[in-house]
Specification:
Blueprint (H helix, E strand, L loop, with lengths): L9 E5 L4 H12 L3 E6 L2 H11 L3 E5 L5 H15 L4 E4 L15 H29 L2 E5 L12 H21 L5 E7 L5 H7 L2 H7 L4 H4 L4 H13 L4 E4 L2 H7 L1 H4 L3 H6 L1 H12 L1
Parallel strand pairs: 1-2, 1-4, 2-3, 4-5, 5-6, 6-7
Helix pairs in contact: 1-9, 3-4, 4-5, 7-13
The structure holds NADP nicotinamide-adenine-dinucleotide phosphate (NAP).
Length: 275
């Protein structure tokens, strides 16, 4: 495994105002990295930059806004002298509902933030990461290969992120750049808390063994991310059971038939569609 210490490195993190993005920025900063916090909420980003002090800066940018994102990258390079590591983390969860009932705008917004937002982030940062022969992390999910019932736009976007990462990993190898894809199960953040509070999501969870949907502490995701970056790992996987699920992803696809017939899944779809 290659060793890639983060001390002194310039790291750009999107979705850094809260959740996994904010926490990994804290971890990286405590290891001596310079962190550029990019996100939607200037007050939260400014408060985090203040909390961290030296070696932290922020830019307000929506990852669906190419010009704002390009400016965030440019400002980071101007202040830090380059970019060594990018963590394309910003993401949203759509309303928990079916493909039949989700609003067109909600479906497309999810893909725009979660997939095209990641694409724009890496596209603009790439020349700088190539220059530094650095590392890129794309935050995907178990939904890149799990069935996305009542969460289709999210699953579509995360499957796309995985493919983007795999292609880049091969293309960038000759430039000395490494690419990691993060496969997180459920992690205890605002995103999951909000989604799990919905009645249809609560019903859907009953169709799965409890351990699969029990949120892991935020620290497990950020510890895995830090380890993955320090070793330029191609895959960042947590909690542990996700590793087995990844190995079995082919056969697991056969469970769609069982899910389609499960009365709890059917009840969840009914509740979602009648909400
Ligand atoms: N939590 C999980 O179980 C889990 C599992 C697998 C993958 N993930 C992925 O991990 C990443 C982080 O999620 P999280 O759980 O930390 O969620 P979170 O607590 O909701 O944080 C997401 C962050 O992304 C920001 N964001 C959303 N849309 C944005 C946009 N258009 N432009 C810029 N920033 C934007 C949010 O801004 P606001 O502060 O304005 O909301 C927030 O700061 C996401 O990509 C998510 O899909 C999470």
């Amino acid at each position: 495994m290659q060793s890639f210490p983060v001390a002194g490195k310039s790291v750009l993190v999107t979705g850094a105002a809260r959740g996994i993005g904010a926490e990994i920025a804290r971890r990286l900063h405590s290891e001596g990295a310079r962190v550029s916090l990019v996100g939607l909420e200037p007050e939260l980003l400014a408060a985090l930059a203040d909390e961290l002090g030296e070696r932290a800066r922020f830019s307000t940018a929506d990852v669906t806004d190419a010009a704002a994102l390009e400016a965030a990258v440019r400002d980071t390079v101007e202040e830090f002298g380059g970019i060594d590591i990018v963590i394309a983390n910003a993401g949203i969860a759509p309303p928990t509902t079916s493909v039949s009932t989700i609003a067109v705008a909600d479906f497309e917004r999810t893909v725009d933030v979660n997939l095209y937002g990641v694409w724009r982030t890496v596209k603009f940062a790439l020349p700088h990461v190539i220059e530094s022969r650095g590392h890129i992390v794309l935050v995907s999910s178990i939904y890149s290969f799990f069935n996305g019932a009542l969460n289709a736009s999210y699953a579509v976007s995360k499957a796309g992120v995985e493919q983007l990462g795999r292609a880049m990993r091969v293309e960038l190898a000759q430039h000395g750049v490494t690419v990691g894809v993060a496969y997180f199960g459920f992690i205890g953040t605002d995103m999951v808390e909000t989604a799990f509070a919905r009645p249809s999501a609560a019903l859907l969870r009953k169709a799965f063994p409890a351990f699969l949907t029990r949120p892991a502490p935020l620290g497990t995701a950020t510890a895995a991310l830090l380890r993955g970056i320090e070793h330029r790992s191609p895959r960042i996987i947590t909690p542990g059971w996700v590793r087995l699920a990844l190995v079995l992803r082919g056969p697991l696809g056969g469970l769609d038939r069982i899910l389609a017939a499960d009365r709890r899944v059917r009840a969840a779809v009914e509740v979602a569609e009648s909400a």
